[in-house]
Amino acid sequence: MSSTSADFQNLYQALRHSAARSPDALALAFEDRRYLYRDFHLRVQRAMAQLDQVWSLRKGDRILLAWGNHPAFCEVLFAALGLGIEVVPFSTKLKQAESEELVGHIAPRVVLFDATVQDWLKNTPDARAVSLSEWQAISLPEPLTRQPVPVNRDDTAVMMFTSGTTGEPKGAIITHNNLLCAIDAYTQKLNLTAADSTILAVP
Fold first, then answer.
1. Where are the domains of the chain?
2. Residue 200 has pLDDT above 80, yes or no
3. In this structure, are residues 155 and 176 in contact, taking their beta carbons and an 8 Å threshold?
């Protein structure tokens, strides 16, 4: 029997289940790189250890994630969600003048940025700033194999900002329940199975 969102309390649990069920299946492809579920889950667990043990992030903290389309974005996203850390995806197309106030409202503990397009983010007040190249150079700790705190369906997973076309951008709160139900709807609507792959082209 295939699993549905009802089997999980958070998105990280869904990844862990997939890695245990199909460790040798393809989880992620990017350019010429391929990541099996076994390998991708291990990378996520090591990222969890970095966030929890090295950076001392805790449930309810926020990270601003502005790495664009890159496997590291996915690794940190799942790692943060497994720890109950709120992720704020941030467009790499936003300029400093139009988004400094927005970043101030987010009040992130950590800012993950791409120095080639948004170097100004390294100066975010009261936040640890880590560029994509710096992250790739980190020797990550041993994997964190357990979730240190419960992360439930009603906990905030992501804050997504609206485009602001009709006013100021607003932060929309998305829970783990929202994400899990969206996955179910997407899977059912497109009749997807474990044998299928999908292309994600959006930033």
1. 9-189
2. no
3. yes
The CATH number for 9-189, chosen from 3.10.129.10, 3.40.50.12780, 3.80.10.10, 1.10.10.10, is: 3.40.50.12780
- Residues contacting 76, CB < 8 A, separation 6+: 47, 51, 63, 65, 67, 87, 112, 135
- This prediction's pTM: 0.91
Rounded distance between C-alpha atoms, residue 199 and residue 74, angstroms:
14
Beta partners for residue 66, in sequence order:
113
Backbone angles phi, psi at 87, to 5 degrees: -105, 130
Tokens 């292309």, residue?
199
- Render pLDDT for 101-154 as a digit per residue (tens, 0 to 9): 889 889 999 999 999 889 999 999 999 999 999 999 999 999 998 898 999 999
Task: Give the Cα separation of 129 and 122 in Å (integer).
Answer: 5
Give the separation between CA 98 and CA 116, rounded to whole angstroms: 18
Distance between CA atoms of residues 103 and 178, nearest Å = 24
Cα(92)–Cα(51) distance, integer angstroms: 22
What mean pLDDT comes out for the span 72-94? 94
pLDDT tier for residue 1 given thresholds of 50, 70 and 90:
very low
